[in-house]
């Protein structure tokens, strides 16, 4: 039995400890907002928060998160400025990479609400989007900052 | 966990079925002018419109664009509109395509009249019912914003709908005048945005059924080889592995979850027959394609006497191009859930081609199409790839063998190894100029696999092979277009903008080489060649104006412009580019894009997002992407070796829409073709470099400096 906290809830799963966290979340907990993209930690579609840090859940084994707090896309409040800005600017196209992008942006602004445009671009460049929503993702993060009352 | 009933409810299907119980006759396709609203839409008692859409939402915003058409004519509040995916079935075919398919940038064009007619029919029936019910003449009733008003009475459409659908369906109802539109032409919120932001949107890979198991398929390492033998014994000992068996494309390993199936596969021993192209690597492929240009092909167009004119010309220009195989790289890899039972089969899949899917499932299961239910989920990217239903066939094969529901998932590596690439191609252009620098002849030949043949539609001249060239909008008196078919066992398929994805590059960079040889400005030369095509001229002119073309290079940056007509739309793009000569690295700073898709623009912001999307994807392909080969198989199996464009490399994008007269054009694809040649043309004028190959990687660019 491994205990993990996901979005504030305690889950006890009995799985091999090398099982990637991604599949635990998707198949055993049943939260499918976190996506499988590459299985190698490259594309960022599987990004979740471990405590406050964005991690790639597809290459994080279950044993590494024992007893830790995980936040997925479903755990970010619906009225958070990042999510609101994303909807307001019609950011998602196919939508598949967006949960990972949103989790990353949420973590960035939590850590550094005044992140500069350059910092945002550098951080978000670790995520792939085949639909090419990058210009809108950038605008949405800047918009979220202004919703949060942050002057940059 | 989604059980089937929940999903059906989710699709809105059960609601529609409830209504069909009212002794309603289903009208078959023959009576085309009558649209039976019950098949397509429902208005719930609490006044929500549930619209069953027959097109796949893969990011292009088609659910929003199509629902707007219905809601506008119906005059219904947008926030109360719900869209659900229509199941696969003959009643949901796109009548203009003759099948249920999302592709060719046709959705809004093909469904525009039909769906407006649907909304108007529904509204008419609601008014008719209110008129009967309230005994008030129709003329004194007003239907607006989801309510009918008149004679001091008021009722919601939802309250009237059940009675309304029992009335006869009116023929040819009157549609709104454009001045009366409430949504068409406006930027209203995307209907799928919220679900895609909160993580609840269900893609193919997300569907979960009771008692479902998982499967992965081990595939051959190279193309043109088949399964020889396999030893499942070790794989079967892996904890959680349920079964291991051969299917038509490889060896399926089934497990209680994805991870156990994947681990089982790692212990699997498989032998394949020798690949028929086992000595093919990148160098061999290049030679093979270039050599094919020496073969005689099929002539797609021959005007005047190009050979003669070229042989006598004072100024002759040549270009030989080699463009790579490209991978679609949908962020959601292929994934499908199938549940095959003895007398019934249910499939959930992120697909673009429901009609092909239905036929495929019927063939494998032996079931009648009426006993097959196929539900289309959201697609985590499509770009043409998900019109190919081989992954769905695999899931059905596995479920049939197991007799239980299965989710088949491709890993990223499986996805690349499955093939179905944008074809590689070699092209040779020879052109001639007269003494005034006018283009008097163009001779073209392309060696390329036949995409339409791979899709089961063979023809002497593959439509994709010469599209954009054979029908070029330029007036050239002596013109030759020729197609040499490449036959290799590397599967090829439709890739966003199809033949135009490569033909625009070769033609548009060649036009600039002609301009340079003739001492002409490339914009001015294009305008001369487009003298008979005012819409094309206008997008080129507007693009030159908005990008400040006349002012020459910007901030020391090189500028390049390209124009292309595809999928009914004219697009011109101008790229501002700089090149670091030391590293060979290209930086695209800004792209100005102008599109003319005709007089009606349903949702301008969706057009803008599709231009942004196509520019980013086209730039990604032109700067970074190539499927690399070794021993007859792909070597670039994941994003580390098949990199995509990232935010840091994304230029500022400015989009302008101009409204020309003529039929409505498409939006999903036409924004892609001009970007690669616009960037290459900037390198030609700014740095004197002729780009003959893609991608424009630093290593390749350095060889040109």
UniProtKB/TrEMBL annotation, chain A:
Top-level taxon = Bacteria
Domain called 2Fe-2S ferredoxin-type: residue spans: 1-76
Q: What PROSITE patterns does the annotation carry?
A: 2FE2S_FER_1, 2FE2S_FER_2
The answer to whether keyword Iron applies is yes
For this UniProt record, the keywords arranged alphabetically read as follows:
2Fe-2S, Iron, Iron-sulfur, Metal-binding, Oxidoreductase
Instruction: Drop me one GO molecular function for this one.
Output: oxidoreductase activity
Gene3D superfamilies found in the cross-reference section: 3.10.20.30, [2Fe-2S]-binding domain
Kindly give the PANTHER family that the UniProt entry links to this protein: BLR6218 PROTEIN (PTHR44379:SF2), OXIDOREDUCTASE WITH IRON-SULFUR SUBUNIT (PTHR44379)
> Could you tell me what this protein is called?
Oxidoreductase
Species source reads Thermocrinis ruber
Automatic annotation (TrEMBL), chain B:
Residue span, Aldehyde oxidase/xanthine dehydrogenase a/b hammerhead domain = 198-276
Report the Pfam families cross-referenced here: MoCoBD_1, MoCoBD_2
GO MF, one example: oxidoreductase activity
Would you say which domain of life the source belongs to?
Bacteria
Concerning SUPFAM superfamilies, the annotation shows: Molybdenum cofactor-binding domain (SSF56003)
The record ties this protein, via InterPro entries, to: Ald_Oxase/Xan_DH_a/b, AldOxase/xan_DH_MoCoBD1, AldOxase/xan_DH_MoCoBD2, AldOxase/xan_DH_Mopterin-bd_sf, N-heterocyclic_Hydroxylase, OxRdtase_Mopterin-bd_su_IorB
SMART domains linked to this entry:
Ald_Xan_dh_C
What is the name attached to this protein's record?
Answer: Aldehyde dehydrogenase
């Amino acid at each position: 039995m491994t205990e993990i906290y996901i979005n504030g809830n305690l889950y006890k799963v009995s799985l091999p400890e090398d099982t990637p966290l991604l599949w635990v979340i998707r198949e055993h907990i049943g939260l499918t907002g976190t996506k499988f993209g590459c299985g190698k930690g490259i594309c960022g579609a599987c990004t979740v928060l471990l405590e406050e840090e964005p991690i790639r859940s597809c290459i994080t084994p279950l044993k590494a998160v024992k007893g830790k707090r995980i936040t997925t896309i479903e755990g970010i409040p619906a009225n958070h400025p990042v999510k609101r800005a994303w909807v307001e600017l019609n950011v998602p196209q196919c939508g598949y990479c967006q949960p990972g992008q949103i989790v990353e942006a949420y973590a960035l602004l939590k850590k550094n609400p005044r992140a500069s445009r350059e910092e945002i671009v550098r951080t978000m460049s670790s995520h792939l989007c085949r639909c090419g929503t990058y210009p809108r993702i950038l605008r949405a993060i800047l918009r979220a900052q202004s919703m949060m009352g942050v002057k940059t | 966990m989604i059980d089937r009933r929940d999903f059906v409810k989710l699709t809105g299907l059960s609601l529609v079925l409830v209504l069909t119980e009212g002794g309603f006759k289903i009208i078959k396709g023959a009576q085309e002018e009558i649209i039976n609203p019950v098949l397509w839409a429902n208005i719930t008692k609490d006044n929500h419109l549930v619209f069953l859409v027959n097109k796949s939402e893969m990011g292009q915003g088609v659910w929003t664009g199509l629902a707007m058409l219905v809601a506008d004519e119906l005059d219904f509040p947008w926030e109360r509109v719900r869209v659900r995916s229509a199941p696969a079935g003959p009643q949901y075919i796109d009548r203009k395509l003759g099948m249920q398919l999302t592709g060719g940038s046709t959705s809004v064009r093909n469904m525009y009249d039909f769906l407006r007619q649907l909304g108007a029919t529904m509204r008419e029936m609601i008014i008719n019912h209110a008129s009967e019910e309230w005994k008030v003449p129709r003329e004194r009733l007003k239907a607006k914003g989801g309510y009918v008003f008149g004679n001091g009475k008021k009722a919601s459409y939802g309250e009237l709908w059940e009675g309304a659908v029992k009335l006869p369906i009116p023929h040819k109802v009157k549609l709104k005048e454009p001045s009366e539109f409430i949504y068409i032409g406006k930027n209203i919120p995307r209907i799928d945005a919220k679900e895609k932001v909160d993580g609840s949107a269900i893609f193919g890979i997300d569907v979960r059924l009771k008692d479902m198991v998982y499967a992965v398929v081990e595939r051959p390492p190279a193309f043109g080889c088949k399964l020889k033998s396999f030893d499942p014994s070790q794989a079967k000992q892996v904890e959680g592995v349920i079964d291991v068996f051969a299917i038509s494309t490889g060896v399926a390993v089934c497990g209680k979850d994805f991870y156990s199936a994947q681990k089982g596969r790692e212990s699997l021993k498989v032998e394949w027959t020798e690949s028929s192209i086992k000595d093919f690597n990148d160098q061999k492929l290049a030679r093979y394609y270039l050599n094919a240009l020496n073969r005689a092909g099929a002539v797609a167009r021959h005007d005047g006497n190009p050979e003669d004119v070229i042989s006598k010309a004072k100024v002759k220009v040549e270009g030989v191009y080699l463009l790579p195989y490209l991978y679609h790289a949908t962020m959601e890899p292929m994934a499908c859930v199938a549940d095959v039972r003895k007398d019934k089969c249910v499939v959930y899949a992120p697909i673009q081609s429901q009609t092909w899917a239905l036929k495929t499932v019927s063939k494998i299961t032996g079931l009648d199409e009426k006993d097959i239910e196929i539900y289309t989920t959201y697609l985590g990217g499509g770009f043409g790839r998900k019109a190919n239903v081989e992954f769905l066939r695999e899931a059905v094969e596995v479920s049939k063998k197991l007799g239980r529901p299965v989710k088949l998932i491709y890993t990223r590596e499986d996805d690349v190894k499955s093939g179905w690439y944008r074809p590689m191609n070699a092209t040779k252009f020879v052109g001639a100029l007269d003494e005034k620098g006018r283009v008097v002849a163009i001779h073209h030949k392309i060696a390329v696999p036949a995409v339409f043949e791979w899709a089961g539609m063979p023809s002497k001249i593959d439509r994709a092979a010469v599209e954009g060239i054979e029908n070029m909008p330029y007036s050239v008196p002596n013109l030759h277009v020729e197609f040499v078919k490449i036959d290799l066992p590397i599967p090829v398929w439709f890739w966003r903008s199809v033949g135009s994805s490569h033909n625009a590059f070769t033609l548009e960079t060649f036009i600039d080489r002609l301009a340079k040889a003739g001492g002409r400005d490339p914009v001015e030369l294009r305008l001369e060649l487009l003298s008979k095509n005012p819409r094309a001229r206008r997008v080129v002119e507007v693009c030159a104006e908005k990008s400040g073309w006349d002012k020459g290079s910007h901030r020391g940056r090189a500028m390049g412009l390209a124009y292309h007509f595809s999928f009914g739309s004219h697009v011109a793009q101008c790229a501002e580019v700089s090149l670091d000569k030391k590293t060979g690295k290209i930086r695209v700073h800004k792209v100005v894009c102008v599109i003319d898709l005709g007089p009606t623009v349903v949702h301008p912001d969706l057009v803008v997002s599709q231009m942004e999307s196509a520019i980013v994807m086209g730039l990604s392909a032109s700067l970074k992407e190539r499927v690399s080969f070794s021993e007859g198989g792909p070597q670039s199996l994941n994003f580390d070796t098949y990199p995509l464009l990232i935010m840091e490399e994304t230029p500022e994008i400015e989009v302008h829409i101009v409204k020309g007269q003529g039929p409505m054009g498409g939006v999903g694809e036409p924004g892609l073709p001009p970007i690669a040649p616009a960037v290459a043309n900037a390198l030609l004028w700014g740095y004197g470099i002729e780009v003959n190959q893609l991608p424009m990687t630093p290593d390749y660019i350095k060889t040109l400096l």
